[in-house]
Design a protein that fits this description.
This protein is α+β, with helices and mostly antiparallel strands and 230 residues long. 50% of the residues lie in helices and 15% in strands. It is built from 11 helices and 5 strands. The N and C termini lie far apart (75 Å).
Length: 230
């Protein structure tokens, strides 16, 4: 009887998900359902538990390096890649939302745009958003891909993007993946350097937005920071 129950287990999981039964399901059950779709003809319940025990949370499982995923018994390269592709899909979905939000004149829209670019990143990334004179988005570019605590910006890239788009102004944005969006002394100094650099190109630095774990920070809206960069 136990074998018969396990044989129909995958079908019951799928039907439960279709019926909306997974909204309050434990994380390991959600992971088990996912694994059942990518690992055929194998009981994946123990694999789901092993992944959760090794990495500590569903988020950490799906953001784990492929080689570390494959250290778990039952996880081969194909299933490890399937797990790893989910965060990449989520990033692209969030970024695609930005195509519908082109005017960044107001803080709430700017914050949402920047969150869609950066909220899922696990290391510090810097983007430049080129804008027309009406603060409508032309394009956005990744100008630095750094570590969790630092990022180095290539100013030559900055010049090429701004001049190619004939931008009137830009928004600079980066993330603090581990917590508070409040700027460091380095962030303030970096903002000053970018502002002065752009002024030589007759381009305005409209804002510098920092995306933290739960909140965003705007240099434009913070008078204490703006007194340093004016």
């Amino acid at each position: 009887m136990a074998d018969l129950e396990r044989r129909g287990h995958r079908e019951r999981m799928r039907q439960s998900f279709i019926a909306g039964g997974y909204e309050t399901a434990p994380d390991h059950n959600v992971l088990e359902l996912f694994l059942s779709l990518v690992i055929p003809q194998k009981d994946v319940k123990q694999i789901a538990y092993d992944l959760m025990n090794k990495f500590g949370s569903l988020e950490k499982v799906f953001n784990a390096p492929i080689d570390e995923l494959m250290e778990v018994k039952g996880i081969k390269e194909v299933s490890a890649v399937a797990i790893s592709v989910i965060p990449e899909i989520n990033k692209r979905i969030q970024r695609s939302v930005n195509e519908e939000r082109t005017i960044l004149q107001y803080a709430d829209k700017s914050f949402e745009f920047c969150r869609n670019l950066l909220s899922l990143e696990k290391k510090e990334i810097v983007y430049i958003i080129t804008l027309n004179s009406d603060i409508s988005v032309i394009r956005y570019y990744k100008i630095s891909d750094g570590s969790v605590n630092s990022a180095i910006v290539d100013f030559r890239k900055l010049v090429s993007y701004v001049t190619c788009d004939n931008a009137s102004c830009v928004i600079l944005t980066h993330n603090h993946p581990t917590g508070s969006p409040l700027p460091s002394a380095y962030d303030i100094d970096f903002t000053i350097k970018v502002k002065e650099f752009l002024e030589k190109l007759d381009v305005v630095l409209y804002d510098h937005i920092i995306v933290g774990r739960d909140e965003c920070f705007s240099f434009q809206l913070d008078s204490d920071c703006m007194k340093f960069v004016k």
